Amino acid sequence: MKKLINDPFEFVDETIEGLLLAYPNHFERCEGSDRALKRADGPVEGKVGIVTGGGSGHIPVFLGYVGPGLLDAVSIGNVFSSPSPDDMLAATKAADSGAGVLHLYGNYSGDKMNFGMAAEMAEMEGIEVQTSLVADDVVSAPVAERDSRRAVAGLMFAYKVAGARADEGASLAEVKEAADLAIFNTRSMGVALSSCTIPAAGEPTFEIADDEMELGMGIHGEPGLRRTKIMSADEVVDEIIANILPDLPFEEGDEVAVLVNGLGATPPEELFIMYRRVVHRLDEAGITIRQRYIGEYATSMEMAGASVSLMKLEGDLPRLLDAPAYSPLLPQWPK
Amino acid sequence: MKKLINDPFEFVDETIEGLLLAYPNHFERCEGSDRALKRADGPVEGKVGIVTGGGSGHIPVFLGYVGPGLLDAVSIGNVFSSPSPDDMLAATKAADSGAGVLHLYGNYSGDKMNFGMAAEMAEMEGIEVQTSLVADDVVSAPVAERDSRRAVAGLMFAYKVAGARADEGASLAEVKEAADLAIFNTRSMGVALSSCTIPAAGEPTFEIADDEMELGMGIHGEPGLRRTKIMSADEVVDEIIANILPDLPFEEGDEVAVLVNGLGATPPEELFIMYRRVVHRLDEAGITIRQRYIGEYATSMEMAGASVSLMKLEGDLPRLLDAPAYSPLLPQWPK
Amino acid sequence: MEKLSASDVIAFLRMLADEMPTHKERLRELDAEIGDGDLGVTIAIGMKAIRDGLPELEGDEPGVILARSGMNFNREAASTFGAIFATALMSAGKHVRGKAEIEVEDLPGMIEAAASGVSARGGARPGEKTILDVLLPMAETLEREVAEGSSLPEAARAAHETCLEALEKTKEMEAKHGRGGWLKEKSVGVQDPGSTAICLMVDCFARFVSGGDQS
Amino acid sequence: MEKLSASDVIAFLRMLADEMPTHKERLRELDAEIGDGDLGVTIAIGMKAIRDGLPELEGDEPGVILARSGMNFNREAASTFGAIFATALMSAGKHVRGKAEIEVEDLPGMIEAAASGVSARGGARPGEKTILDVLLPMAETLEREVAEGSSLPEAARAAHETCLEALEKTKEMEAKHGRGGWLKEKSVGVQDPGSTAICLMVDCFARFVSGGDQS
Ligand SMILES: Nc1ncnc2c1ncn2[C@@H]1O[C@H](COP(=O)(O)OP(=O)(O)O)[C@@H](O)[C@H]1O
Ligand SMILES: Nc1ncnc2c1ncn2[C@@H]1O[C@H](COP(=O)(O)OP(=O)(O)O)[C@@H](O)[C@H]1O
Ligand SMILES: [Mg+2]
Ligand SMILES: [Mg+2]
Ligand SMILES: [Mg+2]
Ligand SMILES: [Mg+2]
């Protein structure tokens, strides 16, 4: 296990300790929980609160999206496991200033069940809660079963858009509407070249030969579309684009935002090589790129691989993408 | 080779192509060179130009530090190899608005010889050139031979400080003075857990067993202090701190900036675990952390590992660190 | 053993919490094949949470001990399995609310209650490769055993045998829930990791009520 | 072959550019042991640059062809080796400025010029595990060969033998320059990668002037 860690069972708590030591003006613990963090300056009076959460091991997802113009609080699970309902409830309370709270997270059964319990408890305590689930990975289920798809890096678009909308003073229903539009308009697909290792498990999650890759793998190492010999960057992008475009569909004349996301070990150089090909392909398809994000926005520990996400820009989305937002765990927003 | 690339000999040029497609308002090619980039809005009238350069494979080093409040132009070599004097000259010309140019780069013999030739040529063309060399890696030579030390992630401090000073309208001598103070006050040491692979070489640069790490390795895989069984994050930090503190020396009452830098494959979670320990150790030593940077500021392709850099804050350094600066390839500046 | 007093339940949970983490690697492997590989860690952390919570439950009635232990598991090791398992223990615990002892006659109803709680929580139906596929057959077996007048150890051993057979059948099922659900037909051939964990627990229970480690 | 005309120099450089990349892996390995592993790639790219530049040099005199080829190498494959090698070729080329043919009598001076150019560029002195440690012994050998009236092929083969012996001696040297310099005593035992490349080139030259591949 090639890791710079101490006791693997302390991995998450030591990460949080380091984070709080690093950014004491940005993050604070939520009352009554060791596994929930909030904006140090929150809750913001009158603003709809946005809460996310999920397993650890994906920084900047999830906690790296807490900040002005983004999310208000986050609950933190063990590596690749859901946070507990108690932590989610603590985050929900910490995010609520009376305007209600949006639970915005990835479509994973553990998170859904636990957030479901937390939402019930929050409502019993008088907090209005709505839920939006990100489900952007096109290979995880056919488009007819979109509701069962899993979330990958497309989370970023949903967070950015919902956070900006809440910042504008929108109501809970309006924030959810913006998040849902971002979610509906986003499609992603990835490729994995090597496994990650859950620290406390001690073994790589999957085996993969030196000359193999897996197309469509999820960000926890969930099996994907197919295992193949390593393909070139251009071939990989071509196959991803071929899967993504017809799914929404993205069509000639559309404007999109593009996210080329690194899963961890893949260097930025390779993401630029991939982005290059994305531009060529979208040019051919008559699709205009209005904004692009290239870097690590959702990782899987030290997994090598990358994903491409497209969000079709409609209505408020361009404005909300460009709105100011800050978190010390994110790349600088491209201008 | 677990890489998302096409022809390995096109690696650098395709990276640059992707970068230019991504940020056309930020980067532009320098006249007469395919391997030199400048700020799209440069040269800035009356401002001292700052030029860097070096081998590819370290993003955001080197080209990711071009931008407002940072550097003006960069020359780009093959992976881990120096740029050519022609490219350096092109960058130097593109950075010069008449106020002279600082060549600010890492202390590597290839870069030094080639930059040396470029500086001679630039001077023949009437451009005043000064040079500052970053040499922060404490394990590469004893302190008495500081001039022969190599550069690692401490480059970031020198870039940030020099860029901010130039932005203030300082003269070439003043910009060099600020850069030299940052360089003199910075000490770094790293650890590598796995090798990187130069794409065109096709083989990992070094072999390292699954349960081994190398303390003090350079960012190109240059052998370090010693090969050991994997140590815990806390032990690694303790050894790094023990090597760094006496070297300057950093002493009780000092204020410092800390950089915990990921080399590529090491996830942010582990950097926070390390930062936690850095805080504990510096607390004990009576050293105050005024600013901290945690993330990927200088990488070695997909190498797993990390480094810790400290810069003692004196004179203008705190002000210059906090000055505004922008590049889409860097993490957001911590507030 | 013919009945489980509150302190018996605590003793059983302590034995379970000591034993289950030894299966961490096996559960990790199964979950890695059709999921994300965290089930072994989840069981290890969750069982430790159950154990750590037991002293505080001293003096409570059996049903409360079970329900609270389920919540303790999911507090420290929340996950799909955590939520499902907590729901199962809470439902089973509710079924024996107010009772000072658990008798063999209570078992069928407890397992049925667990199954319907799980189904309500996660929306699974029989045949979808979830722990329902071992809970429901066990409930049937236990009902038959009780009707036939079996002792608690006899009933528990019969339940464990049924559980193993049912677990074997999960191999042929196509997962519809959780991470396995994304695999569709590719999930066929691997036994359900969560059901495997349940079988290991039932085995432990059968040995506990038989008064010793006879596995 | 007794003299090298401009077109001979071009033919030699073409042969060199074809051959050297076949040693890429060996040079990569050596450089990885005491450096950063890029020398093989540098040679492959630089030699291709020399080859691609040859058509444009058609019609130039031998010294210019050498000097320009050195610059072409370092333009595409700049590096420590690139700068050093370009300097060496430029210095050697300057030494035969104005001459239409290179004769055996020119060789000692060319190699001496290369050595002093390299020393001026990189500050290395003999015994510091750099290409100086093969260049200087070769210059001596060539001087002796010329004094003894050897033919060009004889002199070239003698130079190659000296080069190999000198290369062997670099193993025992401690690097003081470049990346090897950070290794100090740990650099002992490995032969100098850059000098290895030079020896391979001299071998190629000896075979070229001997009129065929006799290696
Ligand atoms: N809807 C469901 N109802 C009952 N059991 C389920 C359900 N979904 C999953 N499970 C059980 O949970 C197990 C996986 O647990 P876990 O590893 O925690 O899931 P994940 O890591 O995917 O969140 C499965 O093997 C299955 O037995
Ligand atoms: N100062 C010097 N003078 C002469 N040759 C040198 C000098 N420094 C290094 N070299 C030669 O260059 C070789 C390394 O070249 P290269 O791989 O390009 O270096 P790097 O990758 O460290 O920049 C060494 O093996 C040595 O022969
Ligand atoms: Mg999980
Ligand atoms: Mg090099
Ligand atoms: Mg799992
Ligand atoms: Mg080298």
Main features:
heterotetramer; A: 335 residues; alpha/beta; Rossmann fold; Hypothetical Protein Tm841, Chain: A,domain 3; 2 domains; 6-stranded mixed β-sheet; 8 helices; 12 strands; 22% strand; C: 215 residues; mainly alpha; Serine Threonine Protein Phosphatase 5, Tetratricopeptide repeat; two-stranded antiparallel sheet; 3% strand; globular; binds adenosine-5'-diphosphate; binds magnesium ion
Summarize the structure in words.
The complex is a heterotetramer, with two copies of chain A (335 residues) and two copies of chain C (215 residues). Chain A has 335 residues and is of the alpha/beta class. Chain A is built from eight helices and twelve strands. In chain A, strands 1-2-4-3-5-6 form a six-stranded mixed β-sheet, with helices on both faces. In chain A, helix 2 packs across helix 3 (109-124). Chain A is globular. The mean pLDDT of chain A is 97. Chain C is built from nine helices and two strands, in the order βαααααβαααα. In chain C, strands 1-2 form a two-stranded antiparallel sheet. The chains are: A alpha/beta (335), C mainly alpha (215). Chains in contact: A-B, A-C, B-D. The interface between A and B is large, with 67 and 66 residues. The structure holds adenosine-5'-diphosphate (2 copies) and magnesium ion (4 copies). One magnesium ion sits between chains A (55, 80-81, 110) and C (36, 38, 79). One magnesium ion binds next to loops of chain D.
CATH topology of the largest domain in chain A: Rossmann fold
- The first-to-last residue Cα distance of chain C is 17 Å
Radius of gyration of chain C, whole Å: 16 Å
Oligomeric form: heterotetramer
Biggest β-sheet of chain C: count, sense, barrel?
Answer: 2 strands, antiparallel
State the CATH class of the largest domain in chain A.
Alpha Beta
Order of H and E elements of chain C: EHHHHHEHHHH
CATH-level-4 superfamily name of chain C:
DhaL domain
Low-confidence stretches of chain A: none
Number of helices of chain C: 9
> How does the helix and strand content of chain A classify structurally?
alpha/beta
**Helix-strand pattern of chain A:** HEEEEHEHEHHEEEHEHEEH
Q: What is the percentage of strand-forming residues of chain A?
A: 15-25%
Shape of chain C: globular
| Small-molecule components bound | adenosine-5'-diphosphate, magnesium ion
Largest interface: A-B, 67 and 66 residues
Number of self-contained structural domains of chain A: 2
By CATH reckoning, the class of chain C would read Mainly Alpha
